[in-house]
Amino acid sequence: MADEVPPAAITSRPDQLTASRFETEAMPHLPDIFRTATRILGDKAKGEDVAQEVYLQAWKSFHRFEPGTNCRAWLFKILFHCVNHHRRKWFRFPLLKETEEFLESNLAAAEPVPEHLTDQDILRALDRIPVDFRSVILMVDVEEFPYKEAAEILSIPMGTVMSRLSRGRKLLREQLSEVAESYGLRRTKAEGLES
Fold first, then answer.
1. According to the model, what pLDDT value does residue 120 have?
2. CATH code assigned to 9-90
3. Taking 60 as the threshold, does the pLDDT of residue 173 lie above it?
4. In which residue ranges of the chain is CATH 1.10.10.10 found?
């Protein structure tokens, strides 16, 4: 009887192991989750709320996370579920949404952007493009997820990821061209770069 493990030790040990695994596997990605949530929502306070919700949901369902798989991708998938939930909660009225076809038919060919832009200029330009395109750019270009993982995270087909990425990059170039022109920089075909 002396060799028996008390029931309290049996139940506390898995919780300690789970907490340790969560700390090791999930917590290092908190800055990325917070940064992306803030960038998508355009508000630091809402970003904090969503990041907390992501980690609460991740903790509650961590028993379903398969060890050895990509925890970062798993957390980003939770992030986009939470963002969509909060958007519905915050905007209980239908929003006018530009369709991809409308954007494609009304976009002019983008001019090349000068290299003399600041990070803040780029982030402000990113904030001005529609969230569907911004989300794909953040997943592929900023967080460097492969197309397949980005599609799984965003719950959209891989072809849609590639389409939105192309269109989002076009929109971003257009925004950055406007910023460059505001600096007095512009590129013409005949003259090259003027300043």
1. 83
2. 1.10.1740.10
3. yes
4. 100-187
User: How many residues in the chain?
Assistant: 195
Q: Token pair for residue 147?
A: 């197309």
81 or 195: which leads in pLDDT: 81
**For the segment 40-50, what is each residue's pLDDT rounded down to a tens digit?**
888 898 889 99
Cα-Cα-Cα-Cα dihedral sign, residues 51, 57, 62, 67: negative
> d(Cα 156, Cα 158) in Å, to the nearest integer?
7
CA distance 77 to 173: 27
**Whether CATH 3.40.50.300 fits 100-187:** no
Residues of the chain with CATH 1.10.1740.10: 9-90
Which residue, 84, 50, 65, 86, is CA-closest to 17? 65
Residue type, 47: G
Cβ atoms of 120 and 170 closer than 8 Å: no
